[in-house]
Amino acid sequence: MTRDGATADGGTPLGLPWSTGVVRGTDGAVRVAGVDVRDLAATHGTPAYVLDEADLRARARAYRSAFETACAQVGTGVDVYYAGKALLTRAVARWVHAEGLRVDTASGGELAVALAAGVPGAHLGLHGNNKSEDELRTALDTGVGRIIVDSLVEVDRLADLVRAHRGDGGAPAPVMVRVTTGVHAGGHEFISTAHEDQKFGLSLAAVPGGDSPALTALLRVVARPELRLLGIHSHIGSQILDPSGFAVAAQRVLALRAELHARTGVLVDEVDLGGGYGIAYLPGEVPLDPDRIAKEVAQAVADACRDLGQPLPRLSIEPGRAIVGPAGLTLYTVGTVKPVRLEDGRVRTYVSVDGGMSDNIRPALYGAHYHAEVVSRTSDAAPVLARVVGKHCESGDVVVHEVRLPGDVRAGDLLAVAATGAYGRSMSSNYNLLTRPPVVAVTAGESRVLVRRETVDDLLALDVAAD
Ligand SMILES: Cc1ncc(COP(=O)(O)O)c(C=O)c1O
Q: Which HAMAP family has this protein been placed in (predicted)?
C-alpha cells in the first residue's frame, strides 16, 4: 500500500466498515482479497456471503494477543473462545483454532461442526439455556472442556446424567455457572443478555431472606461430586461500544467468587466475561479497540481482586461478532429499482436485491443498520436517498434502511453490504422457500466455497411426504 492509502495496483481500500481486503480498483470495480466482485458473482452467483480469510484471522490474532498481553501484565492468563453462534463452518472453526482460539458452541449442531473441524473437545465450551439431554451427553462423550450451566434445574440434570453415564467412579463434568450481573450493555434489548428479566443465566440479586440464584447454583454445583466447578460466566450483551459495563460486571462476578470462597473455601479458578465487543457497521463508526478493552478488563479484574483480597482468576472471553463480522460482506444483484415519493415530498429509491431478510434478519429483527455500495462500477450520477430491500413477501424486508447510492443504480449492478460476517448466515432462514446463499472464502486472490448454495432439490429433499 502507498502513503496515500492506494494499493500497489492503484486501488483504494474502502476502509471500515469493510474488511481490510476490500479495495476499489482503478476500473471502478471492487476486489475482495484480490478477487474482482464481478468474478465472484460469475463464479458463485448471488446472493453470496463473502469472507475475507486474512481479515478474519487477523482479528482473531488481535484479540488473542491483546488479551494475552494485558492479562500477563496484571499477572494472569486468558483463553479466547470464538463464539461460534456468529458464524460456524468447519473452515472457520479451523482458522480460529489455528490462530490459537478455542470455540464456544451453543447447540448440538455447533458442537458437531466444531468437532468435525478437528477442534479438540477440551478446547470447546457448550452454552445454552435449554440444552437437551442429547446435547449434554454429547458434551460428556466428546470431553467438552466446559459446560456452562444456565439454571438450577440444569445443575441437577447434568449431575444426574454424569452419574447415570459414568457411574460413581467417573470423572466429574467441568462446569461454569452463567450469572446475570444486572449490567445492561449493547445495541438493542433483544441482544442485551444481562437483564434480570430474561431467560439467560442466574441472577446475582439476592432473594428476600435467601441467597441469590447465582450463589445457590454455585453451592449446588459444589455439593454435587459429579460436577467440577471451573468458574463463573457472565455475558453482558452484544455490539457493545462503551466498555465500562465489562468492568462493572467483572467486579460483581469477582465479589460473588469471594462470597463463595468465604462460604465454602472453594476458590474458582476461572472467570469468563463473555463476548459482545462492538464493531463498525457504518462508515465513521468506531469499533472497540482490542488493546484498549483488554487493558481495561484486565485492570478492572486486577483492581477488584486486590480490593477483595483474592488471588487473580484465569480469564476467558467469547468474542464472535468482533472476529467474523467485519470480515464478511454479502454480494447481491440489483433487480427492481423504484422511486417512491414520501409524505414530506422527498423521494426514496427502493432498490430490490435478490436476497433479503432470509439471509440477513437483523435489520427486520432489531432495526440493525448496515452500509451498502454499488461494487461493480463507479458512477458520476448524483447520489440518491435509497433503501435496499429484499424479495420477500414482507414490507419489513429491509436490508439497508438508508444509504446514498448513485442515482443511476440499475438492474444488474452488484451491490455489497458491509460487515455481514456475523449473525447473517447463522440466523438465516428459508422464508418464502428461498435457498440459502453459499459462504465463499477469499484468500490471496483465490475464492473457494466453504458452504455451498442450497438448491430447490435440498428443499424438496426435506419435504418427505407428498400427502
Ligand atoms: C454467552 C455468549 N457468549 C458470546 C456471545 C458472542 O457475542 P458477540 O458475537 O457479540 O461477541 C454471545 C452472543 O449472544 C453469547 O450469548
A: LysA
Which atom of ligand 1 lies closest to the CA of 238? 10
**Which residues 6+ apart lie within 8 Å of 209 measured at CB?**
none
In tens, the pLDDT along 338-396 reads 999 999 999 999 999 999 999 999 999 999 999 999 999 999 999 999 999 999 999 99
Residue type, 231: G
Instruction: Specify whether 205 is located in the same domain as 297.
Output: yes
The β-bridge relationship of strands 328-341 and 48-52 is antiparallel
Task: Give the domain range for residue 133.
Answer: 75-319
Domain boundary among 296, 319, 342: 319
Which residues are bridge partners to 228 per DSSP? 174
Contact 400, 418 (CB under 8 A): no
Supply the residue whose CA is at minimum distance from atom 5 of ligand 1: 275
Task: Based on the fold, state whether residues 378 and 458 are members of the same structural domain.
Answer: yes
Q: Write the CB contacts of 389 (distance below 8 Å, at least 6 apart in sequence).
A: 350, 351, 352, 353, 356, 397, 398, 399
Residues 11 and 31 sit within 8 Å (Cβ to Cβ): yes
Catalytic residue of the set 8, 342, 382, 393: 393
- pLDDT tens digits for 98-128? 999 999 999 999 999 999 999 999 999 999 9
* Ligand 1 probe mutation, 235, 246, 321, 426, most atoms within 8 A of CB: 235
Radius of gyration (C-alpha) of the chain in whole angstroms: 24
Asked whether the beta carbons of 281 and 370 are under 8 A apart, the reply is yes
Is 71 assigned a catalytic role? no
Q: Is the CB of 274 under 6 A from ligand 1?
A: yes
Beta strand pairing status for 124-126 and 78-83?
unpaired
* Whether the predicted model's global pTM rises above the 0.85 cut: yes
210 is annotated as contributing to ligand binding: no
**Among 298, 319, 340, residue at a domain's last position:** 319
Q: Is there a domain that residue 427 lies in?
A: yes
Distance from Cα 29 to the centre of ligand 1, integer Å: 35
Distance 193 CA to ligand 1 centre (A): 9
Q: What are phi and psi of 316, to 5 degrees?
A: -145, 155
Tell me the C-alpha distance between 413 and 373, whole Å. 10
